Structure formats: C-alpha cells, structure tokens
Amino acid sequence: MILRLAVLGLLAFMTLPTVVVIAVSFNPTAILSFPPAGLSLRWYANALTYPQFQRAAVNSLMVTGGAVLLALPIGTAAALALERGRLRAPGAWATVLLSPLVVPGVAAGLGFLIVAAFLGLLQSRVVLIAAHVALVLPFVVRSVWVSVTNLDPALERAAASLGATPWRVFRRVTLPLLRPGLFAALLFAVVVSVNEFVVSLFISTRVNEILPVAMFTYVVNYTDPTIAALSTLFIVATFLVVWAIDRVVDLSAVFLHHR
Amino acid sequence: MARAVVELRGCTHDYGALRAVDRVDLTVHEGELLSLLGPSGCGKTTTLNLIAGFLEPTAGRIVIDGEDVTHRPAHERDLGMVFQSYALFPHMSVFDNVAFGLCERRVPKAEIAPRVRDALGLVRLEGRERERPAHLSGGMQQRVALARALVYRPRVLLLDEPLAALDKKLREEMRGELREIQRSVSITTIFVTHDQAEALGLSDRIAVMDRGRVEQIGPPREIYERPTTRFVADFIGASSILRGHATTADEVRIGDRLLRVAGPRAFAPGSEVEVAIRPERVQLATAQRDNVLEGRIVRLSYQGALTEVTTEVAGGQRLLAFVTEPAPAPLATGQTVRLHLPPDAFTVL
User: Fold this and answer.
1) Residue A183: Cβ within 10 Å count
2) Which terminus, N or C, of chain A has the lesser number of Cβ atoms within 10 Å?
3) Contact assessment for residue B156 and residue B64, using Cβ atoms and an 8 Å cutoff
C-alpha cells in the first residue's frame, strides 16, 4: 500500500510540470494561472503567428539539422576509431569527445561567445551549429560506440575475403550493422540540440536565436500563456518524433539491451 | 608432382614482442587439402590470416599461383574463407550472403541467381534462399558459409576451424561432407584445426605446428606412425615415451631388459635415448616372446571397444597399452603383466 502510494507520488511528480503547462496553455485569460479558468485556443494562434517565434523555428531547424548532419558522421568515425583504430591514447580521446557532458554550459557558452566575437560571426548560425555539434557529439559517440563493440570484426574480414574493397565493406556490412546505434544517436542528437538552451543563449542574437532562447526572451518580457501553448506544441512534436522513430526501429531494443 | 598453388617462404609474424609465426616454409599443391594442426597459440590461425591477407608478415614472402601477394590486400587475393563463427552477414538473406562475392566481382545479374542456386545445391540447402542466417541451425549456417566461399570459384579455400562450433555428431557428419565437396570441386584447401581426429580423417597432408614453427609435414599416416619430434609424438594420439640406454645401433636397455628397435633412425651406441610407442601397438604377451617389458597396472579405464591400461615399467616409467575388448584375461590394478613391444612399432626421437 505504502509502496503503491510512493509509486503514484513519483508518477505525479514526474508528470506534473507537463500537465500544468498543458492545462495553462488552454487558459483564456492573459495570466499564467493554475487551474485554468476556461478553454481557449487563442494562445496557440498567438504562438504560431508571433514573427519572432517563426524566425526562431527556422533557426532551430537549420541549427539542429546542420548539427545532426555533421555530428553523425563525425561521431561514427570517432566511435570506429576509438574501438578499432590504433590510437596512441584512446582514453584521452574518449575523454575529449565526451567532455561536453561535464563542462558547465555557462563556461562552454562563454567560450563560444568569445570565439564568435573574435571571428565576427555573432549574427551567423555557424558558431551555433558548431556549438551544437560539440554538445551532441558525446551522445552520438556513445550510442554508435555500443553498436561498434557489438560488431564482429570477422564480418568485415569475411566481406574483404569475398572481394569487397574497404569502402564497399563499410557500405555493405559495417554501416547497415551500425543502424540501431545510428538511430539512437540521431534521436539523442535531435532531442539534445532542439532543447539546448544555456550555451545557445550566450551566442544568440535576435537574428539567429533558436526556439528555446526565443521562448525565454518572450517570458522575460510578457507573462501570457503563449509560452505554455508553444511548450505544449514542443512536447507534442517531441512525442511524435520519438514515436515515429520507434515505429522504424524498436527503441527499447536499442536502449535496454543492445542486441 | 602437382603444381604449387600457395607457397610461404620464410614467413614470420610478430605481435609486438611475441613471435606468433616463426620462419614458416610451406607449399600447398593444386587440389590438395592441407591441414594446419596444433594446440591453441601454435600460430596456425596467424598463418592462415597471413595467407588470407588480414595480416602482413614481418618477414618472408607469400606466393599464390606464382604471383607474389605478400603486400596485396585481402580483397584482391581471390581466396574463399570460412570462419569459425561462420561470419554470415546477419542483415542479409541466405541468397544475398552467397551472392556477395559475385556482386563484388560485378558478375552480371542474370548470372548470379543460377550460380547461387548451384552453390546452395552443392551444400544441399536448396529452397532456403530467402531466410535470414539467424533462423538456420548451426550446421546449415556452416553450409551457407561454405557456399558463400565457393560460389565465385576462388583459387584457394581457407577453413578456420569450421567445425569447432558444431556438436560432436554433426561435426563428424560435416567432416565427411566437407571432404566430398572439396573433392568434387577439387579446390586447393587449407584447413586449420586443433582436432587431430579431424586432421587425420580429412587431410591429404598435415602440417603439425608448435610455437610458431612447422614441426612435421606429411600424409596423415606418416604423421601418426612416424612422428619425427617429441612434440608430434606427444600431440598426435597418445604416445608413451620411454628413456633408455642405447647398447648398440638398434638395441636399447630399459631397466634390466633389452629391447630391439627397428626404425629408420639408428642409435648412437652408449648414449641415452628416447623412444616413443603408440598404445595400440603394445600387446599383452601371452607366450614367451622377445621385446617384452614387465609392467604393474596402475590404472584401468574401460572404454567399451577397448580398455586403456596404464602400467609402470622399470624405473617408474609409464607405458600405456590399449587392450582390445574382450580382454584375453581379466585385468586388475596392482597386477603385473608382460607387454610385448614390436621392434617396428618404435619411433626414435
């Protein structure tokens, strides 16, 4: 009985923020109050037509898309090198690649800001994309790495003995067998990049800011439920993405027991 | 003599400070099945990997079909290989696995399907083209691996302990089948194994390896009956090795008994020597005969068709004898028996 209550309490604790945000988003009044006073979609209309949000959504798409497209091949190459390559200090390389996980966002953000200012790239998306690549790389490397360790080197030797050039071996054997890891990496990279806030805040201007930063700026200036509506859309979109990927590959197989 | 297809000339391979293969010279002739036999760590798999092109020798040359391929990568050597784990591509159907080598050789599409079908027919796996390897039994996976390695008619077939992962009964079946297939396509084959029964039953010739060197090479019967080194005598079958004093060129004294030894190698009279004898050549002596040792039975192990009799002869040396059942007389531990050792059964080490 006590155990059941504890489980229910934990469930409530974990879902409450989401529930509150969703409920508030339908509130017809202009204050962020709970419980809502009625039902309305006016804040959804407001969120979707607010020009700065539209601009930020495009920025998010470009930054996340660019970062993921760069991070996947880089991370895959890194994972293969860490497992297979004859690196002199694989431990040191792994630490460098995974370090963005432990470096505080504020420190990283400041670093990227200084670099961006130095290069005169404060208005462009280039530094944002670079920062996001660095931030999602640990997740990509880890996910692909697990698939690489599960890959029997005899398979690649077999392919070579059958006459496949190194590139053909990679295309026909290595890459298809890394698929589960690559999908997990893709999912992680998208989620991490789309939700990234701290570092992006440092290097964003009105021109290139991404959605989380735009939402934060909005909250600082206005206190109506528009932001709750946008958050709800965000949650729904994330759910759809995870669900869609789960339809393609069995995510529980990727996360729970690798092969 | 048949044409040499694979030649190793003084091949050496070092893993760091460890010398895995040590100046190996080896010639494999057209159509023959040569086994590399030895305990784990003897360098047989490294030797195979050198031939396959997965490793480059530290020193020495590898010649295939008269061409020096020492520095040629694996995919340009045109060999077929079957791996211990089979190494079938799990994301491809049986058909695509077998077709892999043909696709890489740019064989026209129309030609691929019939050739894959023929190869699967050769290993008696017709009708399984669409299945995934994981859905097949170990024995079937083995056949797919063999079909995949044979379908493009490679110059040489390399087999890396291909039967080791199968259970005993299946292994014996596959052994016979492997030999038939190898004969029917008459492909030059190099077979790596640690199982002497496999090597003896399958091979045209066996190269026994130990610590990176080829100890002895020859037909199975020669390897078994005339081992030239102590290692080969010990590793192949069960040999008893007896130490004694050579009195003349063909006589050795063990304890107070004189034994005559008829072999290709003579003794240096007056020296301490070692001779080896196979347990199945040792006979229980019934009537008085020459070349007899007296031994006290220390262990009896009944095996059905025969009994392994371990005896202790003069000087505490052990002598093993296989007595075919039913035994001529009941045997018991502690009992003293007379053992006849035919002069021509000895190998001088």
Assistant:
1) 19
2) N
3) yes
User: How far away is chain B from the Cα of A75, in angstroms, using its nearest Cα?
Assistant: 23
Query: Is the separation of the CB atoms in B294 and B284 below 8 Å?
Result: no
Among A164, A177, A179, select the one facing B75 at the smallest CB separation.
A164
pLDDT at B57 over 70: yes
Which residues from chain A sit within 8 angstroms of residue B85, using beta carbons?
152, 154
Amino acid at A202: F
pLDDT at A257: 46
Is B91–A177 a contact, with Cβ atoms under 8 angstroms apart? yes
Nearest to B61 by CA among B32, B30, B31, B24: B24
At B106, the amino acid letter reads R
Closest CA to A186 of A242, A244, A140: A140
Of B52, B54, B104, the CB nearest to A164: B104
Do B193 and B199 touch, CB atoms closer than 8 A? yes
- What whole-number distance in Å separates Cα of residue B243 and Cα of residue B240? 10
Are residues B113 and B219 located together in one domain of the fold? Answer: yes
Give me the sign of the Cα torsion angle A233, A239, A240, A245.
positive
- The C-alpha angle with vertex A120 and arms to A114 and A124, in degrees rounded to 5, equals 100
- Which of B228, B255, B278 delimits the end of a domain? B228
A97-105: average pLDDT: 87
B91–A176 C-beta distance less than 8 A: yes
Which carries the bigger pLDDT value, residue A42 or residue B193? B193
With CB atoms and an 8 Å threshold, state whether B152 touches A163.
yes
- With respect to residue B233, please indicate whether it lies within any of the assigned structural domains: no
**Is the ipTM value over 0.95, yes or no?**
no
Q: What is the extent of the structural domain holding B101?
A: 4-228
Number of Cβ within 10 Å of residue A199's Cβ equals 25
Nearest by CB: A162 against B90, B91, B100: B100
Confirm if B155 and B31 have CB atoms less than 8 A apart: no
Over residues A198-217, the mean pLDDT reads 90
Q: What is the pTM of this model?
A: 0.80
Q: Which tokens is B173 given?
A: 């079946």
How many angstroms away from the CA of B126 is the closest CA of chain A?
22
The total number of structural domains that make up chain B: 2
For A158, nearest residue in chain B (alpha carbons): B87
Which of A135-150 are b and which e, b meaning 16 or more Cβ less than 10 Å from the residue's Cβ?
bbbbbbbbbbbbbbee
Residue A162 CB neighbours (<10 A): 31
Q: What is the per-residue pLDDT for B76?
A: 95
Whole-angstrom distance, CA of residue B232 vs CA of residue B203: 16
Is residue B274 located within the same domain as residue B221? Answer: no
Tokens of A155: 């398979």
DSSP SS3 for B272: strand
